[in-house]
Hints:
Layout: H1 19-22, H2 29-35, E1 39-44, H3 50-59, E2 64-69, H4 81-94, E3 106-112, E4 117-122, E5 130-137, E6 150-153, E7 160-164, E8 188-191, E9 199-203, E10 206-213, E11 219-227, E12 233-242, E13 277-282, E14 286-290, E15 295-301, E16 318-332
Parallel strand pairs: 1-2, 2-3, 3-14, 6-8
Antiparallel strand pairs: 3-4, 5-6, 5-16, 7-16, 8-15, 9-14, 9-16, 10-13, 10-16, 11-12, 11-15
Amino acid sequence: MWRAAPYRDSHVDMVDARPWEDYSVATFREVIEESGVALYSWDGWQDDFRKEVFVSAANLTNPHKVLVGPWGHCGTDGFDMVTEQLRFFDHWLKGVDNGIMDEPTYLWFTERSDGTGEWVHEEEWPRDGAATVLHLGGGAGGTVDSVNDGVLTLDETTGSDEYTVDYDLTCPDPVGLGQTCPQSEHGLTYTTPPLAADLEVTGHPVLELLLASTAEDQDVFAYLEDVAPDGTVRIVTDGRLRASLRANHEAPWDTLGLPWHRSYAADAQPLVPGETAELAFDLLPLSHVFEAGHRIRLTLTGADVRESMREEVSPAPVLTVDRASALTLPTVGAPAFLDEGPTEEPTTQPPATQEPTD
Length: 358
């Protein structure tokens, strides 16, 4: 059914519906709100659908609780979900005054690089913080055997990087609904120097990517990675966009200030080979502490292990990424990087940012 619906307004004869719209909570928003029924949404940082719990909570006026933990699709590992469910249903179905609705709306797990972390109760999502803008820089990273081994910097840069889409991707284990394995050697990479202090990133990263291709369309994948001092790489979130559906529209609901692509059939706009286009899209939400000594890496590819309907072009397209592209991270505080010497590295002076509030 989903394969037969490449656009948000696609009609699928086998179900006589437009599934992306007809099966969406957004379509039934008024009915849900009129019901007054209380909602408890939960998901995990390793699930592809985690953004939706935050968007629904921002839009529905129903009494709402939101839980996001360090697990995958439908997971609750290490969390006593049975007790939580009983508390919620006891309150709403039996009228038990157990204080569950007196607690802050959001409960999420902020994970650290070493796999530990802490549970955070907040009334709002995301946590108050700052927007840190990182730019794509030229070589001298010296951290990975990628196509370019570029740097991620606080300074604006010039130039561009070319990359021939690599379809030869593998993972040692099946990924299912989980995150793919790192593919740094199969794409363009941009890596910061080591962090001088811990840096928390909580919220929705946004990538403004300036891209040209030799093909008329291209699926683009972006991975935000935590790189340990020993070179171990862990993907902490990712995002993707089909270039032909890059047009931004004003959404009919609150999108948390993020780019929104209506993705109707009429919105499809092929790339003009050789011409630069802007692709602005968000990466899936996260709450992660990059520890001191670790690096932040952005990896860009034109293919992903999890694609079930990949259309491979021959010869493989050549992508050109303009370094004026920018990655905005929702940081708690400003980043500080260790000075690694007189190479093309980011400045150690952070930009002016608003201090987080209590």
